[in-house]
Amino acid sequence: MKAYFSRPSHLWLAAGVVALSLTMANLWAQAVRGIDPEKNEQIERFLRVTSAFRFYDEIVDGVTGQYQKRFPQIEKDFWVEFKKEHTHPDDLFNQVIPIYAKHLSTDDLKEILKFFESPAGKKYTAVLPDLGRETGRAALEFEKDLNSRILKRLKEAGY
Amino acid sequence: MRTLGNVFRLSRKTGVGLLLIGLAMLLQLRAQLFIEDDDDPYYGLGKEKAELVLRYMEVTSIHSYYHDVVESVIRRYQQMFPQIEPQFWREFKQFYTDPEDLLKILVPVYGKRLESGDLKSIIAFMESPAGRKYAAVLPSIGKEVAKEAAAFEENLNRKLLASLRDSGYAGF
User: Fold this and answer.
1) Residue B146 forms contact with A (CB below 8 Å)
2) Which of B69, B118, B157 minimises the CB distance to A142?
């Protein structure tokens, strides 16, 4: 315990500055989003547990990847710098979080989180992308079959 | 030296064993055929799980997906061939389409990915007031989020082009 407290004071100062800036950043984000801190925290938790935060990376990687493919002569450093200097999840989530806040109350979010943070909820979130893909494939198969049935029936009806 | 009779007796023993194995294999094959049988009302999942998947599809409105697909395909044909009488489409829907066609494909997909216990928990949540509200507002949230995501992407493209220009890359 003694050793713990006898760490150089500049480390404590640095930790304090980091904690303070994180709190400030959080308060700033909440102020920008215009919603109460508890609700903001619940929505952030919901987005984390449902992996919605990944959505931001997918867009950024999608856009930059497209340019990287088209212009391979652009140096790798440029992309690293660009992402560091010009992109931040808040650019998207400052707009997205108020949408959730508008549609769901704190009580709704409490219950929704209870489910999504349970083992069944986590499993559900994990399989949803695969389910979506397979449902899409099944729907295409069904649509293809429906199309050929319509064409057959039209022929039979003399059209 | 083994006589023919000995060999036969041995073969009978082995034969009984082989027969039992063969019967077991036949039963297994029969069960497999039953699973893949189009007439299986439980889609190869068994009664309890099939009912859970169907209930899940109902509470998450996946059921209505069938009508959406049928309506959109028919609407496309109606636009392409306006001369076809409305009666034709009414009859087509009545006699030549069946929700079962989509369920046959989808139910096994959901049954494979989710255990009965998971399905029970998901259904319990979806049937709770919070779950119902969540399901009801999800389409609106999805639409609004997609709009914001598109705006974010557009802005990102703009920032990227400006940054490329500033870094001296010609042609941007």
Assistant:
1) no
2) B69
Predicted confidence (pLDDT) per residue in B56-83, tens digit: 999 888 878 888 899 999 999 999 999 9
Helix (H, G, I), strand (E, B) or coil at B62: coil
Say whether pTM exceeds 0.90: no
A67 lies within 8 A of chain B by CB: yes
DSSP A122-133: HHHHHHHHHHHH
CA distance B32 to B92: 34
Residue-wise pLDDT for B114-171, tens only, equals 999 999 999 999 999 999 999 999 999 999 999 999 999 999 999 999 999 988 886 7
Question: What amino acid occupies position A30?
Answer: Q
End-to-end CA distance of chain B: 94
Ordered DSSP codes for A57-105: HHHHHHHHHHHHHH-TTS-HHHHHHHHHHH--HHHHHHHHHHHHHHH--
Give burial (CB, 10 Å; 0-12/13-18/19+) of B102: buried
Which residues neighbour B39 within 8 Å (Cβ) at sequence distance 6 or greater? none
